[in-house]
Structure formats: structure tokens, C-alpha cells
Amino acid sequence: MFAQSYGAVTFGLSGHIITVEVDISTHVPSFDIVGLPAAAVKESKERVRSAIKNSGYRFPVYRITVNLAPADLRKEGSGLDLPIAVGILAASGQLPEEAIQGCLFVGELSLRGELRPVPGILSMVLAGKEAGFRKYIMAPDAAQEALLAEGTEIYDPRTLAELVEGLLGRTPLVPAVRKEPAPAPEETNDLADVQGQLIAKRALEIAAAGAHNLLMTGPPGSGKTMLARRITTILPPMTDEEALEVTKIYSVAGLFKTERILRDRPFRSPHHTISMAGLIGGGTVPRPGEVTLAHRGVLFLDELPEFPRSVLEVLRQPLEDRVVRIARANAAFTYPADFILIAAMNPCPCGYLGDPDHECTCTDGEIQRYRRKISGPLLDRIDLHVSVSRPKYSELTASVRGESSADVADRVAGARRLQQERLAPWHMHTNSEMSRRQMQETCPLDREGNSLLRQVFETLHLSARSYDRIIKVARTIADLAGTPAITAEHIAEAVSLRNMISRK
Q: How many domains does the chain have?
């Protein structure tokens, strides 16, 4: 007796359709799963056995062989419980095989036969759409996420028994219906809440407009964190494609808990005790790290020198390539990591170096060791470096509020539109993505600007990467001003915002 059902697993961020082949023969009773199953898949034997019995159906006391194809793809997770159970019921004659054709089954089974959700539902359903499946059966808690994939027919029975009775036609299987999502909470952060800090606000605007990385250095309580948390309020809204991409990431990571597609740009702020795998991704079963969870949004690293240097160094590759590649013995995973890095740090261990109102208690050696925790190559990849001083009393008590996030966001959106039109032939969106070829074609410097940049390059002994990043930032400043050519004024501002901290 043979039957075939279909399930799905995630591999990286993509869903993969799995053909579940079940063969039952009259030999010594056994239950084997082949096809490169991981531990969680092997354990499904006991869950499936108990779920079938406790749902009131007969578990075959014969030799049962389940093959998961393709056999060269390692299957992780518990989402294959349901297609295995359905395949066994069909192979044993308790369920007509034609009733399960064209259906994709995804779900974990409890010992009582209840259906439970698994991570990555959206990726699996999208893979099913590409493969031509019409119906999708999963747990009720996963249905709203699956319905984000338009044009799908989702069924969400609570138990295995409810599913089987529906497939047999004894009780109706009713398709799941989209619920009206709760209204999104209003944004409470506003750039106008930050009094003073004009240079830091300007740097934040440039960072948002061109997707440039930013490092803020200043004493404790100067407003670095407050500024960083408001950058998402001036970033343009995500496109439908970007929103779906981010939602898939959070689904695979098991962090998707809402009934609406994610529209707000991510803002991730990991603690400095995070591990390398937590930041970059990985683990025994590779999962997206913070750099991928910040994709299309912002990664904020507060107290930057407190992070282990080995953890910070792994940022160098994703900052350049905008992807993370994780190699394992049996597979290689690629995760997207296109984010804006916003970092904050004190000027020294005590935090008061250069503060006119507080005396610094650090020795020269302590200051050097503190700053050397951040390598030169990593600093070189951060486009904007600004000093943030403590605001004055007159600024804190001023009755006139600064520019609102909405006003700044309008300028940022205008600059982004210019960039998208200019970089459309290369399928790029922001100035930070440009390589040398795009810079040569889209970043003309006037004579004064070229002369100033040559002088700065020779005087400061800049690296080729620093040269490129100054031009990219200057291009963004020109876009904010609506100027086709990069002038000496734009170059001067870009250079002033790249005052890298001394590491000597």
C-alpha cells in the first residue's frame, strides 16, 4: 500500500516543497523515516503515532517507511508531522488518496492530535503557489500569516480528526478568512523632541537619505540613543516588495506575531553581550541574526566598544556585501543584510573626555585600549562620524520646537526619489550602494569640489574606501539640496562629517 502527500520546510529564507511518500508492507512492524531527516523530524514518529490513535483512527501495525524527497535536502523542524500523518492514513485506506491531492499540509501535531503552527509559514505558502498548489492546510494560529500570500485557499482545522472528517466529506471544511488587523499604534517618537543637536540631526537626515552608516560619539546623557531611535521616523515607508521580504524573515525567525504584513522598518538594538551567531546568524540549525532582522531597516549598536571585538569584526563583510553567507558541512545559507548601521559610544571609558563641565578620570592607556576595541577597517566602513555634546540648559528649556520628523522625512523622500531615478539602470536604490562605476557616471564634481577633495585626500592620507564614501555622502547632500553636480560645499560638509575618532 502506497500513498503520497505534500509538505514544506524552510531552507534559509525560502520554502521548499517536500514530497512525503508512505509505503506500508506486511512485514515485522516498524516505523522508519528516510530522506535526510533532522532530529525533530525523526521524533515525529512518536507524535504521529499518538496523534492518529488519540484522534480515533487506526495506526497500522505493519512496516511503515516514509521517504522525504528530495533526499539530499536536510529536513528541519516539526512541520512535516501533518503530511506524514495524512500520508499514513491514505496508505492504510482510511483516507482516499484523491482527497489529499493538490493540497499542501504544514503543521506540528500534539499527542492528542491538535494542530500547532510552525515558523516560516509565509515562505512555505509562497513556495506552494509557485509549485501550483491550490489548497493549504495548517493550524488556526498560522492561517492569518498564510493569508498574506494573496490568492490562496487556506484551511485551518483545529485537530487531525476535524481535518480527516472534512476530507472524507462528513463535515465541511471552511476556508479561513482574513481578519481585520488591529490599527497600528501611533508613532510617539518625533525628531522635534530632541532639543538642540543640530549637527547630529543633520547627520541623521543624511544617513536616512542615502542609507549611510553613522557613528555618534559623546558623553553619557547627551541624547545619542534618543536620536538613533528616531531615525525610523524619517525613513521612507517600505515598498510592498520590501515589506513582504521583511515579513518572510520574521516568519522564518519565529518572530511574526501580528495579523498584518510588516510595514514599519525594523529597528534592532541588541545588547553588547550578544554572541557572534546572534549578531550575524548561524547556530546548529542556522537562523537569521540581528543583521538580517534589521534588513531594510536600522541596526543600532549602543556602547559600541563594549561589544567584543571578535563580534564587531564579523560586521565588515555584511556592511560591504549586504548579505550574510553561512557555510555548513551539508549546506550554505545566504541571508539578506541590507541595513543602516547606527552606532553610539562614549569618547572614553568614563565618558567625559573633552567635556568642559566634567573632568575625565581616564589615563591615556585606558583611552587607547578603549578606542582600539573598534578596528580601523570597521571605522572606515562607517560613512558619518559626529560628536554629540550635552545640550545646554537654554536648549532644553526652549519653547520653540525643532523640525518635526514629518518635515525631515519629506526631504529624505525627495532625495530617495532622485537616487532611484538616477540608479535605476543598475537596479539600485540608494547612494550607499554605488560602486566605482556608478560613481564615475552619476557623481560629477565641479572644479572647486574636485580641487578640495584632492587637497583633503593628500593631506589626510585617506584610503580608497574613504575617498569613495566621501563622494557618496556628498552626492546625498547634493540630492537633499536638489543640485545635479557635487560642489565644494557638499564635499566640505561630507568631510566634516567624517571626523573619525583617533585610535592612537
A: 2
Do 150 and 92 belong to one domain? yes
Q: What count of Cα atoms within 13 Å lies in the side-chain half-sphere of residue 365?
A: 0
Mean pLDDT of 200-207: 96
**Range of 224's domain?**
191-496
Which residues sit opposite 386 in a β-bridge?
A: 216
* φ, ψ at 137 (rounded to 5°): -115, 130
Task: Look up the CATH number of the domain holding residue 458.
Answer: 3.40.50.300
State if pTM tops 0.70: yes
Q: What is the largest CA-CA distance in the chain?
A: 88
> What pLDDT is stored for residue 329 in this prediction?
67
Both 418 and 339 in a single domain? yes
What was the pLDDT predicted at 391?
81
d(C-alpha 107, C-alpha 229), whole Å: 37
In a domain, 451, yes or no: yes
Looking at residue 359, what DSSP letter applies?
A: -
Q: Is residue 354 part of a domain?
A: yes
Question: If DSSP codes are grouped into helix, strand and coil, which group holds residue 30?
Answer: strand
Q: What pLDDT, on a 0 to 100 scale, did the predictor assign at position 503?
A: 46
- Helix 447-460 to helix 464-481 angle (10° resolution) is 150
- The answer as to whether 161 is a domain residue is yes
Same-domain check for residues 157 and 42: yes
The residue with cell 499518538 is 50
Domain contains 145: yes
Cα–Cα distance for residue pair 252/295, rounded to 1 Å: 14
Find the mean pLDDT for residues 476-493.
94
Tens digit of pLDDT for each residue in 435-469?
Answer: 999 999 999 998 999 999 999 989 888 888 889 99
Q: How many Å apart are CA 343 and CA 29, to the nearest integer? A: 61
